[in-house]
Amino acid sequence: MNIPSSKSSSSTDSLLAICLFSSFADGEKSEAEREEIRRVASELGSGDEASMTRQILMGKLSLPAAVAGLETGPDRLLAYEMALAVCEANGSVSPDEAAFLTDLRGQLGLGGAESQSVEAEVTALALAPVGSTPPEMDLAPDSGAMILKYAILNGALELLPETLATIAIIPMQMKMVYRIGKSHGVELDRSNIKDFLATVGLGLGSQVAEGFARKLMSGLAKKAAGKLAGRAAGQVTGSAMSFASTYAIGHIAERYYGGGRKLAGAEMKTLFSSLSGQARELHANYLPQIQERAQTLNPASIFSLVSGKSAI
Known about the structure:
By secondary structure, the chain is mainly alpha-helical. The protein is built from 14 helices and no strands. It has helices spanning 9-23, 31-44, 52-57, 63-68, 73-88, 95-108, 112-126, 143-157, 163-183, 190-200, 204-218, 229-258, 265-294, 299-307. It starts with 8 loop residues before the first helix and ends in a 5-residue tail after the last helix. Residues 45-50 and 220-231 have low confidence and may be disordered.
């Protein structure tokens, strides 16, 4: 489903709030990831009120109130698609998240066929096998070139309006780490890669929620400025962040698995911060390639990439 380029403030606030409710649905989420979610809400929440996260955590904003702000059937379907993607970002849905999704589905008034269609699409992307790659990609890769390809691809995915594009970013990061590990004789599964990303300091659920939030906010017309430049600027900012995080993850994985897994967690977090900063500066140089790559992507090609039926 596409995130509309123009949407009322009420609907946007409700969609943002539901993304945040989804992020907090897992009671076992680490404080570090909760803090990341607070940062996202503080930076991207709209309106002049206190941040949405504070309202949610203090009980001042309820889920029924957020749902009530959704104006159309497509808005409600989009809200469920986003919530499910955030909950599945970690590779599975916890009992608390399952209960939240059941409650949300009921409040949204979605029929079984509607919700099942969304669930099939989101799950096919979010939980795709990390080791599914085309045969030609089993060869030992040139790690630097491969990492750059994944970074360009994920930067391109951020430029697309489809929610499926945002959902695909983490699975593609996981595939990249899997391939890097395999090139150094290390067989990884989803759980191993999830632990690696957590050690680096990347919150999976918060990364998905932030991607959705950026797309929602960049779709709002900047009427005060009398132009729509805000949307393009927001998209490029999101592209830079996904490009940078993917680039940093790839190079840390190369050092970690190539060096016998001797990097400590603190070193990996420091490296992630440093490499992300370098990559954000590099993004402008690669933006034409990223924009060109985005023109080749659509829902069918995204599914093909994540399922391993086509090469990056």
